[in-house]
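dumping this here before i forget
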Amino acid sequence: QRECSIRLALGATPGRIAGQLFTEALLLAVSGALIGIPFAAWMAQSLRWLLPPTSAPVGLDLKLNADVFAFIMLVCASAVLLCGMAPVLHSIRIDVNENLKTGARSGGSGGAISQRTRSVLVASEVALAFVALFGAALFVGSYRSTKAVHPGFDAKNLSVAQIDLFTSGYSPEQGQLFCSRLCERLRSIPGITGVTYMDRLPLGFGLSPWKEIQVPDYATRQGENMKIYANSVAAGYFEMMRVPKVAGRDFTEQDDKRKLPVIIVNESFVRRFYGDRNPIGRKVLFDDCSFDVIGVVKDTKYHSLSEDPQPFIFQRKVYRDDPNISFCIRSAGDPHSAQQLLRREVAAMDPNVGVFDAMTLSEHMGGSLFAQKAAASLLSALGAISILLASLGIYGVMSYAVSRRTQEIGIRSALGARRHHVIGLVLRQAMFLAGAGIIGGIAMAMVATRFVAGMLFKVTADDPVIFVGTALFLCAVALLASYVPAWRATRIDPIEALRHE
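structure:
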């Protein structure tokens, strides 16, 4: 204020003062952006660490190109304009005569206005930190709840892999023979307790193919969706995956030889289309064919651990010109050793057949958790940055407040104020800012969580435990951030403080 007053008194125009302040703010913002860009690029690339091992194409365009760089610079310039407007307006409206006469650092009412502005900004930082932390806690809780869900099958000691037959020149008949022989060779190896194959592995990226079905004797409602997800599996799939059978029988080799049009459905399919009626032997129409229901199995998870039970159809594996076949091997010991056995046996049968995406089934299931894992990780990082900004804001405001109240604190100490009284004086002001920010953050979080409630699993968006825990954590951060300025206030020498200014 004093510098601006001298410049104005010497003939500087308000525009020159505003230009100088905007230039200084712009240099700070651009410098911060340039320092932050490498960290942002590193954090963007770290998203790949969240991906499960897969050769499937995943659309993560994480390159820092010219468009992204221009957008960052535009955001920085906008921040300068928005955040720099208030101090610029204040600096060109100051009372020049009053400031030159007093020479004070406070600037009278202007100091009070600046203090209120700083307090509002710090409270806003705390509010935004509360929202980020609360969101992170919700998504971390949802992610943990999802991971704890039982998929309906036993993924322990299971290894999976893809093999490519048809691009190696195999006909459907040759492919069927190759898979049958490969299963026999693997089952004969000590330590291998089960082998099966299918079109798609459960709980990976993407969705299963669907069939638009017709169910005789079922009254279809107007507008009812009759598209049901399906998968093609080989005989022994349910036994090997340890999916309990409810009724009927499994697929057999005889079904393959006789090419019988048979299917197995899950309990949700029976509940929806048959109710209390026995489904075994009933017809289901799709793909211009009539299929007989030969068995019913328990519901499992197919695309996501958080999905609701849904009807599902299992066909016997029919060999078409599919590029890949998914093999699943259960071993008595380390599942990773089964992957080497599979590669060895495939190479012994035909070295031209490729084996890829070899991993455990638990690793493969990470694909279905990618969205929640990414959300939890990103919000946790955002929450950590918000806490850092809020704590720096509280520390800065408290340090500045202590420096402006040096004389007051010296007088209080001279009049007998104890050290804990001085510390309490500073901490109360800091906790007032934190409390105001937390109240604002609660209001913002209650509005924001309405838009993400549908993305949460077994976690409510208005969980009082998370609200209270987040508030207490931010209070603890505020206490830590303000303790150093408070302790510094107790070191003020009363004699030096009384001589101050």
